[in-house]
TrEMBL record, chains A, B:
Protein name: ROK family protein
Low complexity bias: start-end ranges: 1-21
Pfam families membership: ROK
Start and end residues of each stretch annotated as Disordered: 1-23
Family classification: Belongs to the ROK (NagC/XylR) family.
Family matches, as InterPro entries: ATPase_NBD, ROK, ROK_cs
Domain of life: Bacteria
Organism: Curtobacterium citri
């Protein structure tokens, strides 16, 4: 991933924005890194404003906060003089406590009920609002805004990567629930799968179909590789175990999407994240599993599509928490 | 079930209502019968106004329509002279097409895309609005209005009976989806279960935990009974197979509720329907399965409670489609 927005036609060498433009400070806190950048009201990451710093389970609480401070401060320093900072959007790995602005990311065990929203608010000028939501919700807003789910009011955004997460827009508005944790599609179970999940569930989608879990399953069948990239290459070469592994995860994806559609009547599911690129066939297997729900046209109607966003998706989503506040609830 | 409202203090021998009261004509179309009655704006079925007629898979389309005509006409004839008919609410077995008012109940195969809403509209005075929704949504409105989910804005109502259905209220408003079929909790899958479902899914809650499916599983283990009532009696007597069967279905219920809560962050799930009364322990097993989701406080927080409604629930729910239109979306 480059440090500038790959889809932007502007030069990456200097910050630029339309005169007087309204910018959101977007912050994305994930399991391996925290990033910040400015996002325009057209859903574009402003070139030259993007900064990142590593996170992860080994870091202390102070180190994590220092990483956040570093990227926020560095991005703020790039605010064009003719731009207006209209708000801060923070997408965070979950679970979260939306009302109080607290985060408890599963893979950052030193942060439990950590007041990330207020800590970031202290870094920006007084009066600039800070909105914090789960990263899956932010990405869903981005798909709805400028991605693959434009024009639909009944959307699930998904990330299939180290974990499996997501978010919901129903009847044209975000659904975050009383605590802010709606959208945990990774912990919808898949019938016929008994893989134990770290959450305590059985056959949860994340326990079956995340990148690492898919590779681990392939390894148990004799696959010699250790990464999703190797699995992808083996799949493309027709390796039988790799094919079985990708098919298994794709079917689990489809089963969980069928369950979610049964429950909330989705129109479109947009899937991004590193492991979603393992093979286009992952989507085929998912669609096949959905198509087996022959009795329910309202289930088989759901469209499963690749993300319409670049790797800037999480930042665009965090920016959408500001620019698309009318869709938020 | 009696033909009058058991919770009403009024005499069942004659129709009565407060002077000038606003009444909804409530219609509930189910797999075994269709019922109609007037429901007050306090959520009470008006005594003496309730009528029913059998439905079921053996009946022709004309016979089904005649059954609907009969109960609607008979109830209309009981409208107190000092009451105002403010609307008609129809709760129907699904799937439905909410926008066009069509029904396609799974166990009434002669009705596919049947224009039930408009057929009922033709029976009532011009200008009286008719609102049609899935029965699971109607019952959820009733739980939210006068039942076990009062005071919560994040609710799933469920019926566990011949099938397993439900409905959702999220952020204080009903969620029905673009087609009207949100709430099909019976077709959320349960990890580790591979029971084939009539919908085409695997391990769907309905395929595991409906009354008939639970009895059938027990029979395969050697249970000699044939009904949910017999299973209930055997459970109460400590029969090992009956205990295993109720435990299995209760755990599946809990797993599906945990999945649903992961996805939409529920506060309370209210469960009614004939088989929900098989034993209070059904709820204990369901709660135990939810409690195993140890990593997610937002999942384990969900309260699973018995319905707060009498057997009038479906009619009260249909009435709520009129009286609680502000909660509808």
């Amino acid at each position: 991933m480059s440090s500038t927005a790959p889809q932007s036609p502007s030069s990456p060498s200097s910050p630029s924005s339309p005169s007087g433009s309204a910018l959101a400070l977007a912050v994305d806190l994930g399991g391996t890194k925290v990033e910040a950048a400015f996002v325009t009201d057209q859903g574009v990451v402003v070139p030259g404003t993007r900064h990142r710093s590593p996170t992860g389970p080994q870091r202390t609480s102070d180190e994590l906060q220092a990483a956040v401070d570093e990227v926020v401060t560095a991005t703020l320093a790039t605010l064009p003089t003719d731009a207006v900072l209209v708000g801060v959007g923070v997408g965070s790995a979950g679970p979260v406590d939306e009302e109080r602005g607290l985060v408890s990311p599963l893979n950052m065990p030193v942060w439990r009920g950590y007041p990330l929203r207020d800590r970031i608010a202290a870094l920006v000028p007084d009066g600039v609002p800070v909105t914090l939501r789960m990263d899956g919700l932010a990405i869903t807003l981005a798909e709805h805004w400028v991605g693959a789910a434009q024009g639909s009011d009944h959307v699930m955004g998904m990330i299939v990567s180290t974990g499996v997460g997501g978010g919901l827009i129903l009847h044209g508005r975000t659904v975050s629930g009383p605590t802010g944790n709606a959208g945990h599609i990774g912990h919808v179970e898949c019938g016929g799968f008994d893989d134990p999940c770290a959450c305590g569930g059985t056959g949860c989608l994340e326990a079956v179909a995340s990148g690492p879990k898919t590779v681990a399953w392939a390894q148990r069948q004799g696959f010699a590789g250790t990464t999703g990239e190797e699995l992808s290459a083996a799949y493309a070469a027709g390796d039988e175990i790799a094919v079985a592994a990708v098919r298994r995860s794709g079917r689990a994806l489809g089963q969980a999407i069928a369950a979610a559609t049964s429950l909330v009547d989705l129109e479109v599911v947009a899937i991004g994240g590193g492991f979603s690129h393992v093979s286009p066939d992952l989507f085929t297997y998912a669609r096949e599993a959905v198509a087996e729900r022959v009795e329910f046209g309202f289930v088989t109607k759901v469209r499963i599509v690749p993300t319409g966003l670049s790797q800037d998706g999480p930042l665009i989503g965090a920016g959408a928490l500001v620019h698309r506040a009318d869709v938020l609830r």
